[in-house]
Amino acid sequence: MSNTTRRAVLHGAALSALAPSMSWAFDKDGDRKIMIFSGNQAVPVLDPHVRYDWSTRMIQQSVYDGLLKYVGNPPRIIPWLAEKFEASPDGLTYTFHLAGNARFHNGDPVDAEAVRYSFERALKLNAGVAWMLKDFLKPEKITAVDAKTVRFVLERPFQPFISYVPWWYIVNPKQVQVNVVDGDYGKKWLTENEAGSGPFKLKRFDSTALIHMDAVPDYWKGWPMGDKNRLSGVIYRIVREAAPRRAGLQRREMDVITNMSPDDMQQLAKLPGVREENHPGSTTFGIKFNCQTGPTADINLRKAIAYAFDYEALITIHNGGATLMDSPFPPTLEGHIPVPGIPRKDIAKAKEFLAKSKSPQGGIELEYVHVQGLEDARRIGLVLLDSLRALDIKLNIVGQPWPTMVARGSKPDTAANMTSVYVTPIGTDPDTVAFQYHRDSWGLYYGMSHYEDKEAWAMIAEARGLTDKARRMALYGEIQKRIVADQPEIFGMIPNRTWAMRDYVKGFEFSPVRFTGEVDLYPMWIDA
Amino acid sequence: MAVSRGLRLAAWQLGRSFASMLGLALVAVIVVLALIGPWIVPYPDDVEGAVRLAGKLQPPSAAHWFGTDEVGNDVLTRTIIGARLSLLVGIGITLAAAAIGVPLGILAGTAGGRVREIIMRLTDLFLSVPGLVLAIALVAALGAGIVNAMIALVLVWWPGYVRLAESKALSIREEAYIEAARVAGAPRLRILWRHVLPNSISPIIVKMSMDIGQAILAVASLGFIGLGAKPPTPEWGAMISIARGYLPDWWWYAIFPGAFIYASVLGFNLLGDGLRDILDPRSNRG
Amino acid sequence: MLVYLLRRIALAGLMLFGLVCLTFAIANLAPSDPAALAAGPDAGRSQIEQVRREYGLDRPLPEQFLRYVSDLVQGEFGRSVATGRSVGRDLARYFPATLELCLVAMAFGMVAGISLGMLSALFKDRWLDHVTRIFAVSGIALPPFWFGLLLQLGFAAWLGWLPTSGRIGVSTDPGDPITGLLLVDSLLRGNGPLFVQCLSYIALPALVLSLPCLASILRVNRSEMVEALRADYITAARAHGVSRWRLVTVHALKNAMLPTLAIIGLRWGWMMSSTVLVETVFDWPGIGLYAVSSAIAGDFKPVMGVTLIIGLNFMLVNLIVDLLYGVLDPRLRHA
Fold this sequence. Notes:
Helix content of chain B: over 70%
Distance between the termini of chain B: 36 Å
Largest sheet of chain A: 13 strands, mixed
Radius of gyration of chain B: 22 Å
Number of helices of chain B: 10
Largest sheet of chain B: none
Shape of chain A: globular
Number of strands of chain A: 21
Strand content of chain B: under 5%
Order of helices and strands of chain B: HHHHHHHHHH
Structural class of chain B: mainly alpha
Radius of gyration of chain A: 24 Å
Helix content of chain A: 25-40%
Structural class of chain A: alpha+beta
Shape of chain B: elongated
Largest interface: A-C, 62 and 54 residues
Strand content of chain A: 15-25%
Oligomer: heterotrimer
């Protein structure tokens, strides 16, 4: 941005702050536009092998490339740095062939060694994405066969492998290695810098205020909107409160905003020149019962609560912007089936189950824990409290910070009777969700129910290695039914993902496999 | 006779000041609301956790004078019932803090020496950290909830009473009649109880009346940060904290609970001011 | 004087150590697992254990305490488990915003407090006096978070004169910090519009933050000036035909200086701690907001850091005020 335009921009901002009626359009850099996207979450650590959450991954996806990429709805995996790959019939060996024309931002080619190094780095750091593959892939078993070919040999068959690969971003080993401090794999440096090949490069990084990225003019993959229309860059502006984000969009100081409440979205949709993007997501909201200790160890009580719960209220709270779960799996997952007979509100049935439980008249108090500060989870707690009054069960609604909640949930003895959690599946493979019900997930945040069913566990373990797709999906059908029958949780809802944007913003492409709020910035542009 | 004349004088003094009368009236209203609240509110079920999503976020109307909140509860009902909690908590914190602080302060003031040194250093330590930050840290560690909020606030509140009681005890210690009692062989505890305490009681009462207001404010502050009472308990600060997410379109939700906090804190402060003019005319704090 | 100073500094050091012990104890009351927060939601057990080792959370508490103290001595405040960032660096980044807010609030509180106090004294027992009195009590009774919301509603949402919250416009580039105080930086750069913009953002939070301090200064100034107007030398001066206005501005103001100074010392620390509320309401990126959001997330190192910084500030300012008192008031110098 040249000095004069910057000053003009500052001037505009000052005026608009004082007189909001004077609206002033998107930021400009010559003829090209800068798109301003605003959300509430900071990006404390940019390192793609250390951390991910929605805002972090949105920036990571912009400055880095993966071997493959998720796009579209329903989500598809498309070739990216790798133009093709093949898997051996035994499901152990995967060979990726690189496109070859990809370049890192400093001009170095993206070669097989860079891919090998990046996967090794992620596995050795054992943070962020590492959990996805670390039990199946050892760093020594990754080989750069030649400059354009990488081979991975897994420890044992693991069908979800490909579904995780898109989240493993490739860093430039040469840039990283010169910035290594005390053998840290460049961790310190990559916290606020990037060494990627993605469509954008980092211009300014202030983790809690704004991240400014410049579009890479000759991006190796080209620009889908054509070079003429491509943006100059994107600014991700972190604004914690909803009101200023709303005002910003209204005054055209922002082009896209997210993290708005359903009530706010309703108001925003009425504004002229504002478009709403509202799509069913893949994040599930469930209330996990403690299946091992306390009153909820009794399946009859669990069923009673599941039948007493007012599911419709979940939809009302979101002003219609949510879908009820009809299976432990969200519909975006492969192999999802609507499970027949999944509980809906039915007080007669609830009382029937309650009568069979150890406290047939109710008269007990249960604890409901949610993450402190999560407004929706708190409101749903109130709905549950109201629902349980019909069974004469009292509810103690407790908000706890994440680390406290997880610490409590790590053991059946300390886990609350009910804990509400949001879970976003990391890919489209059914194993991502199914495995949450396995014995090995006990004590992790999605395993707080300490669900126990040895046969189900065996099925889950078997399914992740099956190479016969039809058999595999059939097995997942059985797994879903089994889990629903055991009612380890109240299967709640899947909230929609929402963004509000000016109508001149083009190229927005929704994909449910991304996180809440996360968008793919690459295809977006401004038409005005 | 003397007592009633004193009382009448006090009442006359109080009545003469507009500010004090305003304070008294505000406190009286809050106390009355707290006492009879459950019998006069229009929707008593709304504080027990009734959920009426169909009627959420309704503007003020004849049916709901203060409008409704995000789950369709009547804001008027919840605000009035909230007075009970706030008042109880405010009084509770102040009493507990005084119960800890005053004996320690008198002890420090009369014992002197090492005991005094230890007590006063500890007091200084607590007074050197602005209480709210410490209270937030404490509640965050103990877990959100009204009892924990009270514990945290008592822990940061008692040192003020130590300071006050100690300075009073120090000044009284030198008085001739205490000396006389000591010479006459009265036991120390008796001297404390009979002479020191009654003579330092006025400033303590004044401080307590001011502190009830401040304690109400402090609890509401913790509630606002999200560390107050658990839902569905109606607590003013927590209500504002949630209501904030609904500004500016649903403004009534935040306005009314806040007005009640303001009114009660103002009431107790004005009353405290008035009481000080009567009970402790010499002191004049900034 | 020197001995007194050294004693005071030694005492402050002791207090600070006590504060470190206190905050450390509080932070470890929580039955939480910071390593789980640091490792991220999807982390497996081995990852959590690795993080635990990395952060030294597997060591016994006394050892953790010693390490924390030795870190503090080196100016390190530990690492936030939520973000993995150094708390010291975060504090360095957020503190200027808080400092700027407090300085502006204090300046406003002084100017408004002194002038209103003066007016109040001049018009004693008239309507202006009554209004300012109620106003003064309100300054302490108004819940800052609620008053802040009211101002946002009025000035930002309804009138649209001022921005709702934040420190700077969403698409404004403040440039690299020189002092970190945006108002000062924009002046140093000669950027008038940016200065105006920053002023528009700081106005409401500074007003809310200044109220309690303003009220105290107002009360003290009023009573000092009422006192002064009655004093003998004033009567004498008036007999010589010196105007009331001049009397108040010159003589009475001089008398009100010392108590005002004392109040500033007392209020500075309180003001810093009220920033936890005001910054939360106005989304002001300072240490108060940092403390609150960390506390809610169960991340205690930042909370400890902020408590220590505020405590240190409080002690320092009190020390300075005490010294100034000694300099300004000769009666105290030998006491």
